[in-house]
Amino acid sequence: MATTMDKGATPQNPDKPLGLTVLGATGSIGLSTLDVVARHPERYRVIALTAYRDVEGMLRLCRAHQPQIAVLVDSDAAERLSQALRAEALAIEVLTGAEALVRVAGLDAVDYVMSAIVGAAGLAPSLEAARCGKRVLLANKEALVMSGALFMEQVRKHAALLLPIDSEHNAIFQCMPPGFITGESPAGVRRILLTASGGPFRNMPLDQFAQVTPEQACAHPNWDMGRKISVDSATMMNKGLEVIEACWLFGLPVDQVQVVLHPQSVIHSLVDYQDGSVLAQLGNPDMRTPIAHALAWPERIDSGVQPLDLFAVGRLDFSAPDPKRFPCLELAYAAWRQGGTAPAVLNAANEVAVQAFLEGKLSFDRIAPVIEASLAGCSIQAGDDLQQILDADQSARLVACEQIAIKPRRVML
Ligand code: NDP
Fold it and tell me: What is the torsion angle, in degrees rounded to the nearest 10, for the CA atoms of residue 247, residue 253, residue 255 and residue 261?
């Protein structure tokens, strides 16, 4: 049987540094990735960096990491970046448009692709990285939620190596039996336990949910993250997306994936084996740990993360999530059980609802009802080709916009 060690064309101790593309370089995961990479210039060379339109952020990264290519999807922003790079005599090629994301994910000089664009926009370049047989470091869970069957098929067909960056899935991967390959069912595992902090509203009275502001929702107690995933954590849709992600990555039925509230975010997840052993991965809540793990796997490298001080942590608490408080979690389980394009609909409706909430056009307590109505209002297809998935995404966005009474925006997928 092939093992993960045979896959992904990833030489250890290579003679020359491994080429890296960071998709979503200006974001929270992108910056943490580049922080780890900068600690190991002998191992990694940045080939391409991408973002949507953050010119200043990209310029700083170009100075620090000297990529060959910088992509800004927005064409005006790309033009401003080109001018700024010329003014500083930095010879970096600037590309624009969503197709440029796909191009830099598949370049021959690239060995590893960090997939850290937020939302459905990350799907096409992540699929391309898999199709080109790269080591795919997957933070963009939305891509897997939308197109899990297709994605895993591309990974298998092109001998890509898929390593999870989400701290929970990375923890589970670390606790899996030796030789485990993402997408296959692990031997001897009874269930996996996904931990969840419960976000900032774990104890807030339910009748205050309608008044929650974007600033409150984005103030996560343990993790410093982008705004969309912060809201997803507050509704626990993030955990719902992660349940779906876990089913694809670990080849398990959904009733073997259990969510456990653990407010300290020190245990990042656990694997419960048939012999009664429960293996867990612990660490400070800092994404540089899973990033460094996936970059160096199967070796270990310094990530810059402080050692865990268990005396300072003191205690570890666990409880079951309350479905009344977190209806989004139940919606995600239901979408997975429905199958086909239902998870793509769930994801797209959630993206629209979260964006509307962040822009002050939807109250926090209406996020779940908008998603539920979108799932009810879209016809669910088998989802076995990419076009069906993209169509499902677009229909869900239209239905969700109707629910909120806002104009639909075009999303380039
Ligand atoms: P951020 O919002 O911090 O960063 C998003 C990045 O994606 C930015 O570089 C942004 O560019 C770029 N981007 C946004 N929209 C587009 C688009 N339409 N086309 C191309 N690029 C785009 O997000 P995070 O880093 O927090 O999250 C990234 C992914 O990682 C998400 O899928 C999230 O669920 C996942 N994740 C994040 C964790 C975290 O701790 N942050 C933990 C686990 C998973 P620009 O800056 O120009 O807008």
Answer: -20
